[in-house]
Alpha/beta hydrolase fold-3 domain-containing protein (Sphingomonas cynarae), 357 residues
Amino acid sequence: MPDNDRPAGCPALDRRVFLAGAALGMAARPAWGAGVWSRGDLAGVDPAMIDDLLLVDDMTVSAANLDRFRHRPAARHAHPATPPAVPVAAPVPRTIPGLPGRSAVRTVQFDGDPDRRRQGRGAVVWMHGGGYIAGAAGIPVDLRVAAREHGWLVVSVDYRLAPKAAFPAALDDNLAALCWVHDHAGALGVDPARIAIGGASAGGGHAAMLAFAARDRSAVRPACQILIYPMLDDRTGSSRPARPGTGQFIWTAASNRFGWSSLLGMPAGGAQVPVAAVPARRRDLAGLPPAFIGVGTLDLFLDEDLAYAAALTTAGVTVDLRVVPAAFHAFDGVAPQAPASRSFTAQWIARLAAAIG
């Protein structure tokens, strides 16, 4: 992709640097760096997460501050939920072909078995977060640790960002990466039936879109979709108010409207939005891969994620739903050492391992 489609200075993400890509906007105050929350604001938050949340600067993203949002300071720590006993290598950049007639796609990749001792291994195509308008390719440390343990290949896509690149640009990039892993499975030592897709926040939304595209185009059938507090419904905070008590921290209704409007190329929540871009608006969910969906009870996305899990179940898709009490958006990135974060991370890693070995 052209260099000007990706914000400069966005490094690959460690898990704790989730805030630069996995999640997100900072909550309710309009200007970046305007302050942090007081303890009185955090009465409903898991006590084990409060000290970490107090370190996060507020920021609601808009057209006026998008560049500052993209270049805001990363999280102030860089610790995974489960510190590895042996350090894990950083992901390696690799450019792969785009879809026919489209530009090449940048990725970062982590090979858990570079010597190819395990043929027929699993693979993960991972999408970063950032509200559809920020972030860069990166692979959480915990996922790299699991990849090393199981021998997986993990490919994170540096998809094009809105608003400059509106739907379906990012979807095309993500589909190209999935097809590349599938089509080169033999050379990569990957079992084509053991390819998972996943991501956090907007990355979870992109993974859900990708599941539909793979099914509808008969391209690949992913083994599972890992949707970490996924961004699924443009109507949340637009034509549909958020549930009281959600969306106060990290990613707000105002940020959500801007992120979705940027992706769609039109105001979020309207009747004319392209349905293919909004997983929660789809009604044809049969035949999608089994899903893990996780979300906190203080997350702006709580209701849309619960509704999507129910819709998948109704369509006959197996769903592993995990709801984390008193947890805000991107809680596991902000407070990775909190017991609830450690448990949550272990749950989705275990679900992924069960699906791809």
